[in-house]
Amino acid sequence: MIITIDGPAATGKGTISARIAEKYKLAYFDTGMVYRAVGLQMLLNGDDLENQEAALKIAQNLTFPQMIELSKHADFRSDAGSHAASVVSSYAEVRKALLAMQQNFAKNPVFADGSPAQGVIYDGRDTGTVVCPDADVKVFIDASPEVRAQRRYKDYLAKGINADYNQVLAQMIERDKRDRTRSAAPLKPADDAIILDNSHNTVEDDVAFVSALIDEKLNSKR
């Protein structure tokens, strides 16, 4: 079974996907990691983020082990890392170079320890439209920018990171605009995706919602 969960930043996609992966014993692929890896490597190299050729070269040579190693860096999920990922993900050639890596995972999904899995849940922004257009279940999660900015702001404070809500909101709006208007795979729901606005939901609400969709699909196959 292949499940895709897409949506903008701070909708809780990662948390929900991880919970669903654990519940149904599925492999989990956070597709945003490939763009974070490329963006972070550019920062570490001192490359200009506007240098599309440099970004493409990194993308073409990126391996899964390298991505895992880069994910351990402090800036992998920092504001700087998120910004870099958003910039490089707007480059069509970079997306093309990384697409095969993401799609191949669905053919041979594995858990973190390398053991084979019977299915995979993808978490990203174009997994239902580009990476796995034939997925069994597609969900697009959204929430207002203000709600998502508040979540990100509280997350920063909980981690002891100084943050300003208005600045977080401005960055959220800027990233939404870049993601939704990019020419290469813009952020949007797949035509057959189920839309979930979780502005006022708990994680448990979201997990229950997605679980019901999966159970319905599994029952229809029996």
Key features of this structure:
single chain; 222 residues; alpha/beta; Rossmann fold; five-stranded parallel beta sheet; 10 helices; 5 strands; globular
Tell me, rounded to a whole number, the average pLDDT: 94
CATH topology: Rossmann fold
Low-confidence stretches: none
Q: How many individual domains?
A: 1
Assembly context of the chains: single chain
CATH architecture: 3-Layer(aba) Sandwich
- How many whole angstroms does the radius of gyration measure? 17 Å
Give me the count of strands: 5
The largest pleated sheet is described as: 5 strands, parallel
Written overview of the protein:
The longest helix has 19 residues, at 203-221. Helices cover 56% and strands 11% of the residues. The chain contains ten helices and five strands, in the order E-H-E-H-H-H-H-H-E-H-E-H-H-E-H. It has a five-stranded parallel sheet with strand order 2-3-1-4-5, with helices on both faces. The radius of gyration is 17 Å and the shape is globular. It is an alpha/beta fold and 222 residues long. The two termini are 13 Å apart. Helix 2 (32-45) crosses helix 3, helix 2 packs across helix 4 and helix 2 packs across helix 5. It has helices spanning 13-24, 32-45, 52-61, 64-70, 79-88, 92-107, 127-131, 145-158, 165-181, 203-221; strands at residues 2-6, 27-30, 120-124, 137-142, 194-197. It has a single domain (2-214), classed as Rossmann fold (3-Layer(aba) Sandwich), CATH 3.40.50.
